[in-house]
Amino acid sequence: MERIYVDHAATSPMHPKVIEKMVAIMNSEFGNPSSIHHFGRSARHIVDEARADLAASIGAHANEIIFTSGGTEADNYAIFGVADTYGHQGKHIITSQIEHHAVLHACKQLEKLGYEVTYLPVDKSGRVCVEDVREALRDDTILVTIMYGNNEVGSIQPIKEIGQLLANHSAIFHTDAVQAYGIEKIDVNVEGIDLMSVSAHKLNGPKGIGFLYANNDIKLSPQIFGGDQERKRRAGTENVASIAGFQEAVHISQKEMNERISSYTQFKSSLIKKLTEEKIHFLQNGSLDYSLPHVLNLSFPGTNVEAMLVNLDLAGIAASSGSACTAGAIDPSHVLVAIHGQGDQRLQNSIRFSFGLFNTIEQIEKVGEETSKIIKRLTK
């Protein structure tokens, strides 16, 4: 049985060239980048080159890239770093109801520490309204954190418009771009982004490495203490091989971005077409107009998400019900609750298909065929 992986929004397979690059580094470079001898300088050179390339990919300066262990740490560093540094100016934060739990749970923790958080609603397409951001802004607002593209329904937020709005306000603008980076063209200067979180494993890089972009004008209190790495902003010996792998993954994603967007858009259309041809009743969560090209979240009335996922897996298809970080949870998706409201049937019958490396149009057509068979069987 051919197994088809359409859960790339949860994590993506490492690109063969990334693996090759990392193995080469692990075989040849073991020095500590903080050491001043040859071995240390050689490792430092690898880290510095990667930092410069990652910065260039978003229009930033090299010294504005802080390496982290991934998206969760980057989100936490941005939120707690701003709270610790700028809390004396105000204790109000704005976010949305559909953020990743790395943001939502960090905000909940700050509420326990005396901060006030406004959780903005989204419309039926899963997007925040810029006017809602404007109305929520206060003199004591120190941080606005709105994700770039949602990991469950794919909705792309009006980041540039929010950035323009905040240009005349002292609040710092953070975006969790974990799901969008490598798929969408991002320029932090054009879009007015002050802080941005990224993770390598979403774009065919290794797990356990990411970065936080922090504009040079933003000062963040460290959240990990120890050595003076990352210009005293994030202690701990740098993960040289993973950083090199991250760099390679970014090189590939930047070079192939247009091709990937075209392929994923075709995959979406193909899957929708196949389901339509098979006369399957489905509803889309989110919008095709403002959506990440690789994420498609569909509701299948009359089905049950657990039964669907089990049957898909038995058919060799790996999809999901949304965020992998809540796998096994019995609570409905907070993203779908925000879009449709508590008690809506879509909370119980929605499946996320997300595309990526090694997927082919033939595989996606097979996914459509097998999904149709399963739905017909379950709704008989």
Name the quaternary structure.
Answer: single chain
Question: Helix/strand-derived class?
Answer: alpha/beta
Shape: globular
Q: Indicate the percent of residues in helices.
A: 40-55%
CATH architectural type of the largest domain:
3-Layer(aba) Sandwich
Keywords: Iron, Iron-sulfur, Metal-binding, Pyridoxal phosphate, Transferase
Family: Belongs to the class-V pyridoxal-phosphate-dependent aminotransferase family. NifS/IscS subfamily.
Cofactor: pyridoxal 5'-phosphate
Pfam family, one: Aminotran_5
Characterization of the model:
- One of its GO terms (molecular function) is cysteine desulfurase activity.
- The strands form three sheets. A seven-stranded mixed beta sheet has the order 2-8-7-6-5-3-4, with helices on both faces. Strands 9-10-12 form a three-stranded antiparallel beta sheet.
- With 380 residues, the chain is α/β, with parallel strands linked by helices.
- It has two domains: 4-12 and 257-378, Alpha-Beta Complex (Aspartate Aminotransferase, domain 1), CATH 3.90.1150; 16-251, Type I PLP-dependent aspartate aminotransferase-like (Major domain) (Aspartate Aminotransferase, domain 2), CATH 3.40.640.10.
- The longest helix is centred in the last third of the chain and has 38 residues, at 240-277.
- The chain is globular, with a radius of gyration of 21 Å.
- It has helices at 16-28, 38-56, 71-86, 101-112, 130-136, 159-166, 229-232, 240-277, 305-314, 334-340, 346-349, 361-378; strands spanning 4-5, 65-68, 92-96, 116-120, 141-145, 172-176, 195-199, 210-214, 283-285, 295-299, 317-318, 350-354.
- The protein contains twelve helices and twelve strands.
